[in-house]
Design goal:
Distance between the termini: 26 Å
CATH architecture: 3-Layer(aba) Sandwich
Oligomer: single chain
Order of helices and strands: HEHEHEHEHEHEHEHEE
Structural class: alpha/beta
Number of strands: 9
InterPro entries: SAM-dependent_MTases_sf
Radius of gyration: 17 Å
CATH superfamily: Vaccinia Virus protein VP39
């Protein structure tokens, strides 16, 4: 499912590819039962254990492919054509569909997946690899509680690397989103894209707390970049 750049390359083509790639690696799943919850999660735990999780839904089900193509296209052009590595972090990986997509899109990258429960991706890794995932890049996966201050923890994981692309598809709760962003922000590269999914209100808090950053809201999607709407 590698995305090959050529003279017919366009954001529209990337948008279509993102939808196909997500479907190729399993697509939309729902009713995935939680096995682990942060002790600091303020939501009723009994209810959370009853409510199943869903994933593989960003590109087609939620319709985020257009915005992803808009913001990832400039990075894809500059990094891939110049043969530069890309540092990608995804928070909330569930079964790993997103990681498989990013590994195909950026074949030369360091790819990190963070989740409070790694059992789901570990159980699904065989399926992803049979579908052709991770031929060039093997993801690093780490346990991650979004309600904790993970600043030092991220420093140990990243070492001297800086993050170019970060996707928060974890709890979808504003307190956890803000804590995660605060932990990761010091490690973002000079030209980064930070995306928070499935939270229609978090952008308001981020705009207040970080007025120097550009924060775009598109429905339930928040896109944060350094002082400009999209990278050039």
């Amino acid at each position: 499912m590698a995305f090959h750049l050529n003279n017919k390359w366009s954001e529209e083509r990337l948008e279509r590819w993102l939808v196909r790639a997500e479907k190729h690696y399993g697509g939309f799943v729902k009713g995935v039962q939680r096995k682990k919850i942060s002790p600091k999660d303020p939501r009723p735990h009994e209810l959370l254990y009853k409510i199943g999780m869903q994933g593989g839904d960003r590109m087609m089900f939620h319709g985020y492919a257009k915005k992803y193509a808009e913001y990832l296209a400039p990075i894809l052009q500059s990094r891939v054509l110049d043969d530069c590595p890309t540092m990608i972090v995804e928070v909330g990986i569930l079964k790993g569909t997103g990681l498989a997509v990013w590994a195909d899109l950026f074949p030369k990258c360091r790819l990190i997946g963070l989740d409070i429960d790694l059992n789901f991706i570990e159980e699904n890794m065989g399926f992803l690899e049979k579908r052709g995932a991770f031929k060039n890049t093997k993801p690093e996966i780490y346990e991650f509680d979004q309600y904790l201050d993970n600043f030092r923890y991220m420093g140990k994981i990243l070492k001297r690397d800086r993050i170019d692309i970060c996707i928060d598809d974890g709890t979808h709760c504003t307190p956890a989103n803000l804590t995660t962003f605060r932990s990761i922000k010091p490690y973002l590269s000079k030209q980064f894209v930070y995306i928070i999914e499935d939270n229609p209100n978090v952008y308001l808090e981020i705009r207040k707390l970080y007025p120097s950053l550009n924060v775009e809201n598109s429905g339930e999607l928040t896109i944060i970049t350094p002082n400009r709407k999209k990278l050039i």
